[in-house]
Specification:
The structure holds 2 protein chains of 2 kinds.
Chain A (H helix, E strand, L loop, with lengths): L1 E11 L3 H12 L4 E4 L28 E3 L35 H5 L9 H16 L4 H4 L18 H4 L2 H7 L4 E2 L37 H7 L3 E3 L3 E7 L6 E7 L5 E11 L5 H7 L22 E11 L15 E3 L17 E5 L21 H13 E8 L8 E8 L5 E6 L4 H19 L5 E4 L7 E4 L25 E3 L14 H17 L1 H5 L1
Parallel strand pairs in A: 1-2, 1-8, 2-5, 3-14, 8-17
Antiparallel strand pairs in A: 4-10, 6-7, 7-8, 9-12, 9-15, 9-16, 10-11, 11-12, 13-14
Helix pairs in contact in A: 1-7, 1-11, 3-11, 6-10
Chain B lengths: L2 H11 L4 E5 L2 E5 L1 H6 L9 H14 L8 H9 L9 H4 L6 H20 L8 H12 L11 H17 L2 H6 L15
Antiparallel strand pairs in B: 1-2
Classes of the chains: A alpha/beta, B mainly alpha.
Amino acid sequence: MATHEKVDVVIVGAGASGSTYAAVLAKAGKKVVLLESGPDWQLSDLISSDIWGRRVKPAGAPFLLQGKNPYGYAYQAGWGVGGAALHYFANFPRLMPNDFKVKSEHGRGLDWPISYGDVAPFYDRVADDVGVSGDAKGEEIWRPSGKPYPMPPMKTFKNGDVWLKGFEAVGIRMRKAAVGMNSEPYKGRPACLYDGWCHVGCPIGALANPLVTYLGEARTAGAEVRPRSTVTRVLTNASGDKVTGVEYFDEKKEKQVQEASVVVLAAWAGQNPRLMLNSATDKHPNGLANKSGLLGKYMMAHFASGTFALFDEDIENHMGTIGGQYFSYDRYDKLAHKDKGAFGSTFIVAGAAQKTSDLGGFANARLDLFGPALADFMKRAKRGLTRITAFGEEMPNIENRIEIASEKDEFGMPLGRFTHSFDQAAVALWNANFEEGLKVAKATDAKESWSGRGNMPTIHLFGGTIMGTDAGNSVVDSFGETHEIPNLFVAGPGIFPTEGAPNPTYTIFALSLRGAEHLAATWSTVAG
Amino acid sequence: MTAVERRAFIKGAGIGALAFTIGGAQVLLTPAEARAQGVPLRTLKPEEAETIEAVGETLVPTAREAGIANFLDQQISIPAEEALLEARILNVKPPYANFYRAAIGAINGASDKRTGKRFAQLDAAAQHDFIDLMRQNKLEGWQGPAGPFVYLILRSDAVDVVYGTMAGYKSLDIPYMAHIEPTRRW
């Protein structure tokens, strides 16, 4: 086992949050090492193919899944440099002010220890940093004003435009979506070509993945990335009040130790608690920073209600981006579907480029079809199919959790075990969104429309290391600093105490920028 | 896999080619070409491949000719981290060969119990009825991964080889619009 020279900060995970921390700290003059379990992907690896795109999806130790709605993590998690943000849809909606005080306002869920106003300046700065296209003024019907986005909205196509009539009929206002993509050249990166391959990675750099944004900046500032380095433990001093580095296995599967003044865990909401639980010592018998007993608890997922519409005409459904052309917060009130027994926000997107295969491919728009019926459907859908998606919010539930199992991976680290079930309010919201989606579709000029029902999906992952006011009610503070160990930080969606309904990456970038700048500003106190 | 081999993989990706081993040498072929050339199977037994082809063809017409058995055989014969299977993103626990063997066993076991024949020996109408019951988890005597999940995975594999390639897009007259080769690395 080799012990590497001590560095200022070691960051576990080179995805959205780890890259942001690395950029800020490297530019602040800190010696930064990122340890990433997967490969060192390059843009030229991002092949435009749903089949080949699976190479950038998780390939490490599996998670064991249980509960009524087992968490389907592999489609949306990352593996390798860039993490999940290497293949994300790059929808860039924000959380809304009502997301931060759910407990106070409704007596359920949890409160954040900060408000929308604390995060808003960082949304604006991330937009400038990574490049966001959208209509900020248009969004002000739903949120406080902020800076305009640095680029105008993206083009829209018929496959998005055809929905507007339906939404108007149902009283839902749509706005051109904010996306982390270039509607025009930005910071030396080209404009989007609208070929719809965003979800397997954008090889031209028009989409704001970490390689062309924060991670690129971090590398330029001197941060070192060590790919194929799997961290298995966070190391602490004898008194348990400081972390001293991490233990990891390198690409030759040899054990290494990287000492550091500060450790940032940015390895995803699933891996971070697994690592912290596996780092238990006599001073932290239940896992690091787990005095609250909440480490690994309150894990949350989004769910989606997809509605399809089939038009006779060619609606250019091969064109666009894979995320959404329009979005709406008009059903974002937590009580918007109260009459259906639902609770939680809904975020709606419309219009997306259609591909044939993979989970989101249009062959799956009618999962019940096979044989000649499927072949016939593929021909009918190839130019006329489009969809909308309503993302729903589930409330934090302490029973939804990650634990470590007795079964171990190739490095001797216990596997993580997810337990996840949606509650009745979430199921009711899922159903209500299907019902309303169908009303919208039927108010368009579509020839056919239907709900894309199947098993209730789990999308995105949050919680497990939630933020709060103290060590009694949470694992970290609002900056991601653990309450019990000042030089141990956690970054990413795991620190969200509630999830809201929108795609999370914009908020992950914003919170990571806020946490990293706080760390840099308080360095002597934290790392001293 | 060496860097040279990996680049070869990537170069072949655009046409949907995979690395098959013929006479000890690796060659890039599409699964359809591998089938047409009779490339030996590495992991699947002939009877298993026959079942995969019959199920694939029932799920998506032309999946047999598109080389679904060669595709799956090649994919379950390489390290899991290199696999391009939809099973990877549907949380199937590697090694993936275990899942496919269990699925094939469940299909033939239930078929035998129902008809006294393996799935591949059924006529097309009976195969269709069997798959429809499997999809709905209504097959008696089913022992293995859940029927609807087997349906989802094998249907996805068949869709991949028939519709997920550039040739598949062309067959539907959908512009593929492949990525632009990057001219620089960041």
